[in-house]
Amino acid sequence: MLTSVLPPNSNRRSLALGAGVALVLLAFTQLYLKTPVGILFLALTVGMVGSLTAAGIVLIYRTQRFVNFSQAAIGGAGAVVCFNLMQFRGFPFIVAFVVGLVIATLVGLIVEFGIIKRFFNQPRLVLTVISIALAEGLPGGAQATLRQLIPFVFPDQKTSSLLDQLGAFTPKLPYEGFTFHVGSLSLPFGFRHIFAIDAAILALLVLAAFFRFTRAGVAVRGVAENADRARLLGISVGSMSTLVWMLAAFLSGVGVILASTLTTVAAATGAGPGLLLPALAAAVLAKMRSIPVAVAASVGIAVVEQSVNFTKPEHNSLVPVGLLLVIVVGLVLQRRRGGRSEGDAESTWQATAEQRAVPREMLAVPGVRFGRLAIIALGVLGVVAFPFFASTGLTNTGSVIAITGIVGVSLVVLTGWAGQASLGQFGFVAIGAVVGGSLIGRAHVPFLLAFLIVPVIVGAIAVVVGLPALRIKGLFLAVTTFAFAVAVSTALFEQKYFSWLLPDAVPRPRLFLIDLQSERSMYFLCLVCLAVTVVLVSNLRRSRFGRILIAARENEPNLQSFGVNLVRTKLMAFAVSGALCGFAGVLLAIQQQAVTGASFGSTASIDVFLYSVLGGVGSIPGVLLGIIFRGVTQDIVHSDFLRPIIGPGGLLLILYIAPGGLISIVNQMRDAALRIIAQRRQMIVPSLFADMDPDALAARLIPLAEPDPNAGLGTLPSGQRFQRPSELYPWRRADAPAVQRAPAGALTPGIGNGDDGALTTSGARPGGE
Q: Which residues make beta-bridge pairs with 749?
C-alpha cells in the first residue's frame, strides 16, 4: 500500500521501533497521566477517523509530490450536504452518508480537472499554494453555493436560519438509545463511535485491496514510484492522477463526516488546524510514504492529545507545541529515502519564476528611462500623500499594510530565493512583538535598541525551526512552519505560562522631535522601515549571498561542486528571514500599542504567504504588489458582493490566468510596450523576443509601413540598388563608374566597393571584376 519495499531487516527494525513507541505511549498515559481506558477508546476512535485525512495527504504527496493542505476541506461540501439532508429532509443517516461521499468525490474530481491539471506542470510550490487557497476557499464556496441552492432544494427554509442551525446541529444517528461504557469511566459511547471505527477501518481496507489486487491500483503504485517510467510502460499518468484525487476526496469525505458525527457539524468545514494539523503530523512521521505508518501515528497522536485534554485540561494549549516537536524531531531523525525520480522532482519543487528586468538596450531610450522614473515618482507620491487624504482608520490600516510588507519581503528571501515554503511567518512576528513589547513596555529599553536586539533573537529561533529543511528536501518546511504558527498562537499568549513576558501595554515613543502618537507620523515610520527593508534586501540580492541562494535553489549538486557550504547558506537565509519578521513584530507592537493573540493567528501567516505568492514571491515588487492587493481587498473593501470574488476565489482565478503572479501580468504589459518601442525604433532586443516564435519575430522586426513606390528604393531605375559606402577597398574608388555622389557615411546609391557611393548598373563590376 504505497509504501517502499523494504528488506526483511528494515521491516524488523520498523516493527521494533513501532513496538517501542507503543510501549512509551502506554507508559506515559498509564503511569504518568493515569488515563482511563475509556479515554483510550475515545482516542482510538478519533485517531482512526483522523488517519483517513493523513492517508489522503500521503496519497497525494506520493503520486504528485506536493503537500495537499486542502485534504480536510475537500470533504466539507459532502458533509454539509449530508447533514442538510438529514436535518431538513429526514434522510436516513446511511443514505445521507452515501450521498455526502458521492458529493465529496465529485468535488475532488472537479478540483482535479478544473484546477490541478492547469497547474500540473508548474513548480510544486505553486500547487501547494493552490491547495492552501482551496482550503480557505472551499468552505466559503460551499456555503455560497448552498445559499443559492436553498430556495430550490429547501424551499420551506430561510437561508440565514438554515446556516445558523447547521453550525450547531448535532446529527441524530441510528440506535441513539444504544450506549455502553468502557472501563470505570462513566463517559457514554454509542453507535456513532462503533460506526466511526468500523467505517474508517473498512475504508482503509478497501484502499489497501485496491492497491494490492486491481490493475488500476498497481498502476497508481507505479506512478508513485516513477512517473516517467510508468508513462513509458503505457500507463496514463493523467488518468491515474484523476483516480488518485477521487480516492483522496473519498477519504476526505469519510473522515470529515465521521469527525462531524463525533463532535458537531461545525467541524464539517474541514479547514481548521484542529483537524488538519494532527493529520499532517502523522503524515510527516510516516515520511509521506507509508499509509500504515500514518494510520498508526495518527492513533498515537490522538492517544496523547485525548489523554492530556482529559487528565490535564489546563494544559491543553500545549498540545500544538507537542505536535510541533513531534514534526521537527521526526523530520530531523528520519533518513531520506526515495527513488531517483523523486530526487529529480525535488530539484523543481523549489523553482520560482524570476522576472526579467528592463533590457539595458531599452534603458538607453529616453522615453523608457523617463517613463520608468515617472511611474516610480507617481507611486511614491501616492504613498506619501495617502495619509493626508485618508481617514485616521485608513491611515492605521496603511501602517499595518506597510508592516505586513516587511513580512512579505522576508518571504522573498526564504521562499523566493532559498525555495523554502514557510507558513509560519507571523509566528516569528508574534515572538518579535512579545519580546520587543516587553523590552519597551516592561524594561523601558529604547525602541531603537529593541530594533537591534529582537531581530537577533527571532533570527536564532527561525534557524532552529528551519533545521528540518536542511535534513529533508521538498516542502516539509511548510508543514513545520504551519505547526509552529499554530503552536505560537495557542501557547505564547497564555498568561499562566508567559505572564512574566507578555506586556500590558506598549507606549509609542518619540523619535527625535517627532511624536509617534499621531497615526500619520506612525504611518511614515512604518513606511520608512519598509523602505529600509527593501533597500537592504535588494542589496542582498546583488551580493554573493543572494546569488548563492538562487543557485542553490536551482541546482544544489552543481553548487556543491564549487565548494559552497549549503548548510551555512540556508541557515543564513532562515536567520535573515526571521530577523526581518522580528523587526516587523517590534514595529507592530509599537503601532498597535499592545500585543494580543488575535493579531497572530495561523490564518495571518497563511494569508501573507498566499498573497506574497499571488504577487510574485520571486521579486520584491511582486510581493509588495500582493500585500497591497491583500490590504485593499481585506481591510479597505468591505462589500459583501465583492469579498467572495476578490477573496480566495479571486486568488485562484489570478493564479489560474497567470501562475507567475500579478507581477508577471505587469511585466507582460511592460514587455509588450517595450516591443512596440523597439519595433518603431528598428531596435533588435533579443531578450524581449526570447519567448516568441522565430517566424513571428522576423515578421515583427520588419518596418511597420508599406513600401512607397515614389520614395526610397522605389525611385531607383531598374537593375540598380542602394548600398552603403565602404572603406574596405579604397584603391578601387577610381575604378567605379561614378554616376552620383553623396557624402561619405550616408546611405547612398551604388554597388561599387568604393566609399564614394556611386550608382552603378547591377551587373557591372568595377575594376573589370
A: 722
Q: Which three cell numbers stand for residue 274?
A: 484542529
At residue 762, the pLDDT reads: 39
CA-CA distance, 374 to 77, in Å (whole number)?
49
Q: What is the pLDDT of residues 652-684, one digit of tens each?
A: 778 778 877 888 888 888 888 888 888 777 777
pLDDT average, residue stretch 139-167: 54
Q: Provide CB contacts within 8 A for 51, sequence distance 6+.
A: 200, 204, 279, 282, 294, 295, 298, 299
Q: How far apart are CA 198 and CA 194, in angstroms?
A: 6
Q: Is 189 in a helix, a strand, or coil?
A: strand
Please give the Cα distance from 579 to 600 (Å, whole number).
Answer: 17
Q: Which residues pair with 179 in a beta bridge?
A: 190
Give the C-alpha separation, 217 to 684, whole Å: 54
Amino acid at 224: A
pLDDT in tens, 402-459: 999 999 999 999 988 888 888 889 999 999 999 999 999 888 888 889 999 999 999 9
Closest CA to 646 of 140, 308, 56, 284: 140
Q: Which three cell numbers stand for residue 121?
A: 506542470
SS3 category, 13: helix
CA within 13 Å, CB half, 755: 9
φ and ψ at residue 543, rounded to 5 degrees: -85, 175
pTM for this entry: 0.81
* pLDDT tens column, 4-53: 433 444 456 666 766 777 787 778 787 787 888 888 899 999 999 999 99
Is residue 190 within a helix (H) or strand (E), and if so which, with residue range?
A: strand 189-190
- Are 339 and 602 in contact by the 8 Å Cβ rule? The answer is no
Helix, strand, coil distribution of the chain in percent, nearest 5: 70, 0, 30
Q: How far apart are CA 61 and CA 224, in angstroms?
A: 9
Tell me if 59 sits within 8 A of 286, measured CB to CB: no
Length of the chain: 769
Distance of CA 348 to the CA centre of its chain: 15
Measured distance CA(326)–CA(468) in Å, rounded: 12
Sign of CA dihedral 462, 465, 467, 471: negative
- Classify 511 as helix, strand or coil: strand
Distance of CA 413 to the CA centre of its chain: 14
pLDDT of residue 32: 80
